[in-house]
Fold:
Amino acid sequence: MKMDYCIEIYLKTGIAIYNSGEYHAAHGAWEMYWLKLEKGSEEKLFLQGLIQFTAIIYHCINKNWEGANGLSESSLRYLKDLPDSYKGVDIILIKDYIKNLKEDINSFSEHKIPYISYEGAKMELEDLGVKAAFIAAMVISEEIETYDSEVIEEAIYHIEQHIEGKERGKIEKLIVVFVKNSELRDLAYSQIKNRVEMIRNNEEVIEKLFK
Structure:
């Protein structure tokens, strides 16, 4: 699915996912935009640095010290020429954390993983707008095996291209709940899936009428 949003939306989405503790999933939002960028551009280097930073955290959690060490050098290389604050992100904090791990990988602690600040604050899932929630829903459904990402993708397609009025609003709200409320996520997904199936069935009935 083509989501033609600005970098800030993808950036905030990935940060919020990371700050929620889904360190591996965070890269999914950034990669959506990273793939569009020209090789060697400042924005591409920035996102590549963030992607590798989250991969370092993920490797450390899984005690893959070799993998974490291998990415530390390249992540610092991607981020080295960026200003202390770039696109609202505290680059110094990230670089200092990577340098400390590089010097002493045994200093890693799951209880001391830094959050990524955005414009001086901790960006969280509940802070995301609707467009960012769409991206987050795609990333979360791809990361967690109990959800079918195709259902979420189809729901977003219907919202953006196909349906209007109350039904559009209902599905949109369900996607926002799916992203922002982990306790209601299963219920929200179930209702999203039901509505997508209803739309499919209605389309099939309409097609038969014109045959």
Observations:
- The chain has two domains: 7-126, 145-209.
- Residues 52 and 121 are 22 Å apart (CA to CA).
- The chain is about 65% helix and 5% strand.
- The mean pLDDT is 91.
